[in-house]
Amino acid sequence: MLPPEYNLTDPRLYRVATTDYVTLVQLCHESLSHYLARFYKVRPDYRIPGTFFDDLASVDVSSVDVCLVVGLAVFFTVLRHHFTEGISKPLAAWWGIPILHIHKFPESLWKFFYYSLAWGFSFHVHILSGSYNTFYDPLSIWEPWASGRIPAVSWDIYAIYISQCAFYIHSIYATLYMDMWRKDSMMMFFHHFIALSLITLSYGSGHVLEGAFVLFLHDNTDLLLEMTKLCVYAKKRENGEFYRILDMLGNVFFVLFAIMWLVFRLYWYPLKFLYTTIYAGVYLAPQDSPFLPVIGSMLLILQMMNIYWFTFIVKMVIRVCRTGEEPEDNREWDTTAVSGIPREQLKQLAQEGKLPSVSIKKKKR
User: What is the pTM of this model?
Assistant: First the structure.
């Protein structure tokens, strides 16, 4: 590969911890114009789509990596099944989760379990370990690329990549066959495909620290979403008991979820990461790096998805403020599909205290 055009100490680089939106647009316009003007000088023989597929064939993914990912994806799927049957459903029956939420509780508990571990480890790697300064100095991501050669992958970043790649493969299957179908399920399926493609291309081309930073900026909101849902599902029981502490915690987690989505996905993701990749990557990555345009496009698509999903959050906030109703996943279709009872009838039954629980004994009959 051709070495980077600049180095990190070059005075021509705009280097800050977090930029602003106006500056980001100006910097990206400048860098993309520069990239397009330089592209055919460094890759004069590039042809679409032939050269792209040639580059794709050169992606460095070993058979060991593939076996690990596939095996771990199968493991996640099997583990989720046993987690659901052995922990989630008995817990839901023991707590007396009403039928309105009985089908959603196991899904949320599984995702809470996974994201607690995944984001907890990611937080340790990026913030607590002291091994990387990507959050406070995003352009330092490109320091290992100074020679123009693909940098070595450390064990912690490798662990994040292999586990997350496996989880997205599992999630594609789960979206189609295990999760409750929602209005945005096809969007979620597309998101998992984009994420899986990003992980594969970035790993195969050596951009692993960048990819791990993306995951760090996204997974915490998934964790808070599941914490909110679990509190909503568990605060009212079939016997009429109402747990005010869970109601309060659900509201707190929902507010934190909305704030964290705004801060991590709509503020820090574009102003730290897109600034680092779409602007600085043009000057600090190898000049002939094969997948920068593709990866950059996918990162922008991911940001558009973040904005799209934020509209659901805004609608939910407006509804809660106007009506005083509890936070509820407004992406869901009518509950007839999962319970056999229309949502309005379920709400009426809930008000009358007539909702049955789904217990282990009833499931066996």
Answer: 0.86
